User: Fold Deoxyribose-phosphate aldolase from Mangrovihabitans endophyticus.
Amino acid sequence: MTATSLPTGDLRSALHGLPGVDKVGVEARASMLATRSIKTTAKAQAIDLAIRMVDLTTLEGADTPGKVRALSAKALRPDPADPSCPPVAAVCVYPSMVGVAAPVLAGSGVHLASVATAFPSGQAPLDVKLADTRDAVAAGADEIDMVISRGAFLSGRYDQVFEEITAVKEAAGAAHLKVILETGELGTYDNVRRASWLAMLAGADFIKTSTGKVPVAATLPVTLVMLEAVRDFRARTGRQVGVKPAGGIRTTKDAIKYLVLINETAGPDWLDPAWFRFGASSLLNDLLMQRTKLTTGHYSGPDYFTLD
Assistant:
C-alpha cells in the first residue's frame, strides 16, 4: 500500500486493522535492551556512527544568522582539533534561516533540513503550510520536517492528515520529507503505530517522534513501536522508511541505547544516517567528549566544544 494505491476511504479500516500494541511487552523489551553494554572498540564505532546520524538543530525564537552559520560550520567539522571526526548528517533550522545555512553547507554532503508547515503546532491552513514548504526548498533545504495536525488525527480525521502529508510531499519535490508525529500528544502506543503507518502510506521518507517543544519527547518504547512499524511496512510494501527520535536525547549512553534498539528491532539496514537520525543539539557535545576520552584517555572539559 502506498499513497497512490490506497483509496482514502479504506484508510480508517486499514489503520484500525493494525495489531494492537502490547504496552507492557513494549516497555519491558525497551527496558531490557537499554541494559546492553558495548565494548570499547564497538563503542568507538558506535560514537562515530551516532555523530554521523545527528541532525544538529537550533529552533529558537532568538536564533540569529551568526548562530546558524556557526552551527553549520560545526556540523561540517564537529571537532576542529581532530580531522578524523566525521561530520553530522544535517543541520535543521527554521525556514527563515535556510538561506543562511545553505552557502555554508553547499557541496559538503551535509543535508539542510527545515521545519515547516506551521511548526511546532501545525495549526495553520494547508495553503500556508505548502507555501512554507516551497519557500524552504527554494532557499536550499533538501529535507523538510513537517508536523501532522494532531487535532485532526486524534478526532479521527485520518483522511485530512493523509491528504495534508501527500500535499506537502508534492510541494517538497525532491526534498526528503520527515513527518513529525508529536508522539507525546498521541496518548497511546496504538495511536503511535497508526500515525506511523498513516504517514508512511502518505509518502513519508522518515517518521519522527517529536518537535522537542512538548514535555514528553522521544522515548525508547515509542521509538521501538515506530521501528517495528517501518520494519513491517517494508516487509509489506518493499519501501524502506527512516526513523528520527528527537528531543531529550542528550548523552552518548542514550544514543547507544537507541543504536541497540535499531539493531534488535528493525535490523542493521537501519544503522545508517540515510535511515536513522537523532534530532538533537546538546547530544553532539557529549558524543565529542566521549570520543576524545576514548582517543586520548582523558576527558575534555564541557567548555572545550562550542555550546549550541
Q: What stands out?
A: The chain has twelve helices and eight strands. The CA atoms of residues 62 and 68 lie 11 Å apart. The beta strands are 54-57, 90-93, 111-116, 143-147, 176-180, 206-208, 242-244, 278-280. The domain at 8-295 is CATH 3.20.20.70 (TIM Barrel).
